[in-house]
Amino acid sequence: MRFFVFLLLAACGNAFHLGGGAAERCNTNRRDLIEGFAGMVGANLLLSSAVAPPAFASGGATAGKYTTIPIAKRRYYGRVQAAVHDFLLIGPVVVKGDMSAPEIKNFFDPEGLVVVEARRQDVNGQCTKKNKDCKGSEVRDSIYNDMKTSMYLLANAFRINQTKAPDNLPTVKAAKAFFKEMDAMEKRVKKGKAGDKEAIGHYAAALDILDEYLDLVELPPTGSGLYDQEFSRAVGESARLT
């Protein structure tokens, strides 16, 4: 269409040199064509705006329902279940009230758990370091700290609305309530007192909250018998219970 408009305008340019009726007719035809072309452009714009391409969700608001939660389960279910197993394991010792017991100390020991295993730092099978030490170093932390991390990350994944603050999630609220009781217990454990009823109370309260948390993240309760076994903290191959 633009090509024909260009031809008419060029032809009319020559017609003006001829003068008389030719120029007048060309002026009329040119005006009519331009007005018609403008009308067609306007119609096309209206049509393009009326038939806009469908908008697709970016995945922000609903991504968690379909992707984040299954991925989080694969990443953290093993760690959370292992931590629950270790948490329940110290229960009989906690009831006795001796906060200096090795089992309890180990649960809160900053060096008690290998979080990241040591990896060799060879390059293509060759150690390129000057001191020839390519063994690497492992990362260690307490069982409790790893429990806090994995519980929070799993809880935060149960968010289907990305505009909602994590602290407003029921899963995160339950996790933080559990941490509050266990942090208080950890302080009592550092004192290492025998017959510490306050520490026992914090553990009992945390146990109740833990069941609430497990239900929210779609895991069985502590009394189900599932946590009698040991669990791998490695990333799982699926979102199923291990």
Commentary on this structure:
- The protein is an all-alpha fold.
- It has helices at residues 2-18, 20-50, 63-89, 91-96, 102-108, 143-157, 170-191, 197-216; strands at residues 113-116, 139-141.
- Helix 1 (2-18) packs antiparallel against helix 2 and helix 7 runs antiparallel to helix 8 (197-216).
H and E string: HHHHHEEHHH
- What overall form do the CA principal axes indicate? globular
- Percent in helix: 55-70%
Low-confidence stretches: 1-18, 33-67, 237-242
* Rounded Rg: 35 Å
Number of strands: 2
Distance between the termini: 67 Å
Beta percentage is: under 5%
Overall pLDDT level: 73
Largest sheet strand order: 1-2
Largest sheet: 2 strands, antiparallel
Name the structural class: mainly alpha
> How many separate helices?
8
Key structural traits:
disordered N terminus; 60% helix; mainly alpha; two-stranded antiparallel sheet; 3% strand
Provide the fold topology.
Blueprint: H1 2-18, H2 20-50, H3 63-89, H4 91-96, H5 102-108, E1 113-116, E2 139-141, H6 143-157, H7 170-191, H8 197-216
Antiparallel strand pairs: 1-2
Helix pairs in contact: 1-2, 3-6, 6-7, 7-8
